[in-house]
Amino acid sequence: MTVDSFGVDMTAHDQARHQILDAAAEVFQLRGFDRATIDDIAEEIGATKGRVYYYYRSKFDIYLAVYEEGMKNVRRVVEPFSTGTGTGAERLTAMSEAHLVNLMQNLGYHNAIHQGVPGQRFAALKERQREVLATINGLREDYEAMYRQVLEDGITDSSIREGDRRLMTRVLLSSLNSTAMWFRPRGGQDEAEIRTLALQIVSQVIGGIENR
């Protein structure tokens, strides 16, 4: 247990916060940001909306937190493969498989990411929201840059064909992320099945840029 200087159990605090984010990701996926309510999120965790407001000030703050958590989580599982052994194409394949497995196991978070940040169309964002939004935009840019660097490595070692690096990276990530539009987990579907599906998708996507 981790306790801060005010005697707050930070482990329990973080667990409660993540419980709200998990619930919110599911609610945003099912209802979309505009139709989702704090009551929906509270009902998902079997609590009152007062408990949700204890941790987050608004629905938009929750959405930003879901988005940020989703980006950090996928980066956490994908990044180790970017600096592993193998050719650029091999590393790009491993990264893409990890990305897809994470997507299929955390579909609500990825759907929130792909909906985009609704607050970007609002002129009057609060300062704290602007700061989070800047962080999120930085996470997205850094994630794309990581893929682009490995793709560059593949072009250098001739495992990936020549092409516009930025365009190839964006097409690759867009192709992977489009899986969120149609994939729905089946009851009893284990991780091995998810990985097999991820490999099949990645094989088709990487095949379009791989040198053979």
Automatic annotation (TrEMBL):
Residues within the DNA-binding region(s): 37-56
Ranges annotated as spanning the membrane: none
One example GO MF annotation: transcription cis-regulatory region binding
PROSITE patterns to which the protein is assigned, alphabetical: HTH_TETR_2
InterPro entries: Homeodomain-like_sf (IPR009057), HTH-type_TetR-like_transc_reg (IPR050109), HTH_TetR (IPR001647), KstR2_TetR_C (IPR041490), Tet_transcr_reg_TetR-rel_C_sf (IPR036271)
Cross-referenced Pfam families: TetR_C_24, TetR_N
Keywords: DNA-binding, Transcription, Transcription regulation
Classification via Gene3D superfamilies: Homeodomain-like, Tetracycline Repressor, domain 2
SUPFAM superfamilies with a match to the protein in the record: Homeodomain-like, Tetracyclin repressor-like, C-terminal domain
Span of domain HTH tetR-type: 14-74
Keyword DNA-binding applies: yes
Name of this chain's protein: Transcriptional regulator, TetR-family
Originating organism: Corynebacterium glyciniphilum AJ 3170
